[in-house]
Amino acid sequence: MKYLMIMLALAGSVAAAARADEPAGLSGTVVDVKSGQPISHATLYYYRAPYLEHGPNRIMTLQTNARGFFSDVTLEPGRYVIMARFPNKVEGCAVDDVIGGEVARVKIEMGHDTIMCSGPRVHAALVDPNAGADVYRI
């Protein structure tokens, strides 16, 4: 019995290590905060945190389809920040622990000048109001 428990523990750690090498992903929907209707062709920006470590050339874009759906399943595991740009303002949210072999699901509610996110491991990201147009931090 003890041998079986050790083997199961080792199998679990090997499986976890294998998943860490697999691509991770983000997917979800963008809806209007007031009506709840999907927002088609919305552009979102995202990067792997910390921003300074991965650099400004690592800011990527996603665009929703006609049903408000977005997806990128080719990411490295880690923490990601998803942002929307509004006139004179950037709002965002962070998705913690995007795990290899898994897709983190995010629901984004967007208004005229705001973005709110929900989902497992999702929380608000603090955007530095003094930062330049392409520099963000969480």
List the helices and strands and how they pair.
Elements lengths: L1 H19 L3 E9 L10 E6 L2 H4 L5 E4 L5 E7 L2 E9 L2 E10 L4 E8 L4 E4 L3 E3 L14
Give an overview of the whole structure.
- There is one protein chain.
- By secondary structure, the chain is of the alpha+beta class.
- Strands 3-2-5-6-9 form a five-stranded antiparallel β-sheet, with no helix packed on it. A four-stranded mixed β-sheet has the order 4-1-7-8, with no helix packed on it.
- Helices cover 17% and strands 43% of the residues.
- The protein has a single domain, classed as Sandwich (Immunoglobulin-like), CATH 2.60.40.180.
- It contains two helices and nine strands.
- The protein starts with a helix and ends in a 14-residue tail after the last strand.
- The radius of gyration is 17 Å and the shape is globular.
